[in-house]
Amino acid sequence: MTGDTDPDDLKLDDLFAEAKRQAPDVSGDLRARILEDAAKIQAARALHAPYVTRPGFLSRLFNSVGGWGGLGGLAMATMAGLWIGFANPTLVSPELGDVELTELSDDDLFGDILLGDSLFFEEG
Amino acid sequence: MDMAFDQMQELSDDALLVLFANGDGQAAALLTDRLAPRVLGFATRILSDREEAEDVTQEAMLRLWKMANDWEQGEAKVSTWLFRVAKNLCTDRLRKRRGVGLDEAPEPVDETPSVVAQMMAADRMSALEWGLAQLPDRQREAVVLRHIEGLSNPEIADVLDVSVEAVESLTARGKRALAGHLAHRKEELGL
Description:
The structure holds 2 protein chains of 2 kinds. Chain A is mainly alpha-helical. Chain A has helices spanning 12-21, 28-48, 57-64, 67-86, 89-92, 106-111, 115-123. By secondary structure, chain B is mainly alpha-helical. Chain B has 11 helices and no strands. Chain B is elongated. Chain A binds chain B through residues 1-7, 9-16, 18-20, 22-27, 30-31, 33-35, 37-39, 41-42, 45-46, and chain B through 20-21, 23, 25, 28-29, 32-33, 36-38, 40-41, 44, 50, 54, 57-58, 61-62, 65-66, 68-69, 110, 124-125, 128, 134, 147-150, 173, 175-184, 186, 189-191.
């Protein structure tokens, strides 16, 4: 007989519950095959994983100053410092104006720290 | 360092899959022990062939391992995803077995030799397997997923790629048809 029957007439739910309890055992062979596949996938991933190393000293230094932006600022500051060092002191010392170094007294010279270099150039 | 096995047993399938993707070998064993029996049970009932069902189970698990890296937690249940893969693999095998498209395939024949042979033992489970084998594929899948695997209707809809209403219809018709197939053995099977 293949016609439809009211399922409530039969204890189908009991049968389903029984089937649920009797889940098939996965054989040792099948389990081993599945885990072998898993291990292969993991091994392949490990092989192709990106190689990550600890950044070196120069790299860390580079990062600590703020990367390229920081390095650019540092270079600018260095150049500005050099310019200040080599430029005519009269440009940077309003106290001196256009006065010749030879006209200055010792107090004038040693009273301003900026004149240390100027004196050196005058002598050299 | 791997997590303690006892702690891992309390983790969700989602979390275990993430651990697997991070190279944890124990996660693979736990997921296999949790999920493979369910996939095997489903595939066995759909295909009525233990050997083919084992191949489907291995293939479905392999696909799970392959997609572990791309798994997005909370998107779907791992078990539902796996049942969908298994269902598609079963469908492919049924199509090959019949040699025609599933939609063009005739309704299942009344007797599947191996199942009929099992029925000779008058065993309740064998009778259930035989009755399920008589159902059209979609009804069989819906009934097995709902009443034996315990999936919710929305989960079944996801697995079968149909609406929830269609699932309700499939399970109701499938259960009624199954009852019809087993009705003449009501006394014998203690139903």
